[in-house]
Amino acid sequence: MRERTIASHFVRAALRGAQRRGLDCQPLLRQAGIQDAVLREPRARVDPAQFARLIQCLWETLDDEYLGFGRQPSKRGTFAMMGHTLIHCRSLDKALRRGSLFYGLFPDAPCITLQREGDWARLSVDDQNLWDPDHFLVESLLVIWHRLGSWLIGQRIRLEEATFTYAQPAHASEYELLFPGTRRFSAGHTSLLFHARYLDMPLLQDERTLKQFLQHSPADLLARPDAGDSLTSQIRRLLGRDCQQWPDLESVARQLHSSPQTLRRRLREEGSSFQELKDHLRRDLAIYHLGRNDLDIQAIAEQLGFSEPSAFHRAFKKWTGLTPGAYRAQEG
């Protein structure tokens, strides 16, 4: 769902390279429509469109697609030129390898490698040349290359595993959207593992579709949550956007060909619950509507199924640390 929201951690992390370069980030935040209060509140979240705008603003201001995290900047247009070098490849294997060779031409660029491991393929990023304290750029590169590969062959590449050389961070629960599948921390490589059959698939894109794709990428690739096949993603799709007509647990279990008991157990194993999923979906829908001025706060509360605005205010403050009014208020 496009209403999936992004934790404030990633906003703070995205700004670290610009701050290191001595840039005043307040104008960039205002351009992206992100309130300063969001940075100060660990529970706060932003709309994906706001996050994409922030990334675009950072690229334009720094003229650096590495956002200030590399030893050398990667000038704007580098990603687009890489796209043009690989768009005529016959298979995904050749495209990813050509893209890797392209970035290998630049000194101090993070090294991207593709290896076959029997029936599996591993895409790795070596970040030893980066100043990347929050691992923001290396994670962004993994997300962008995964989604670029999926776009090239016209189907989502299902991830078997994502591995990271660093310890599990406090915001690890957010990784389900970025890297659906098994996740291992303190591993030997920062990498993605997927079935090698994808590598033999032909590219379904051409220069015309690439031109459209590059109008919003890679910022959109980074900001758009994965429409994955995890249990929580499936349930969110079944719940839909009409909070007043949500199906109950028994109905959702039937649609997933499961029993309510099994569904509860599987959600528990994923560290979640049916009620928590509904709360998170309400939270994300609230942020989606508050970021647009099509509905007033009372109308949003009604649409989300709250009997009175005060109940919505309390719930939103609990979810994000901010009131709906504070979230919507524009600065400066």
TrEMBL record:
Matching PROSITE patterns: HTH_ARAC_FAMILY_2 (PS01124)
Keyword Transcription: yes
Pfam family name, one: Arabinose_bd
Keywords of this entry: DNA-binding, Transcription, Transcription regulation
InterPro entries: AraC-type_N, Homeodomain-like_sf, HTH_AraC, Tscrpt_reg_AraC-type_HTH
Protein's UniProt keywords contain Transcription regulation: yes
Domain HTH araC/xylS-type span(s) in chain numbering: 233-330
UniProt-listed PANTHER family: HTH-TYPE TRANSCRIPTIONAL REGULATOR GADX, HTH-TYPE TRANSCRIPTIONAL REGULATOR VQSM
Entry protein name: Transcriptional regulator
UniProt source species: Pseudomonas fluvialis
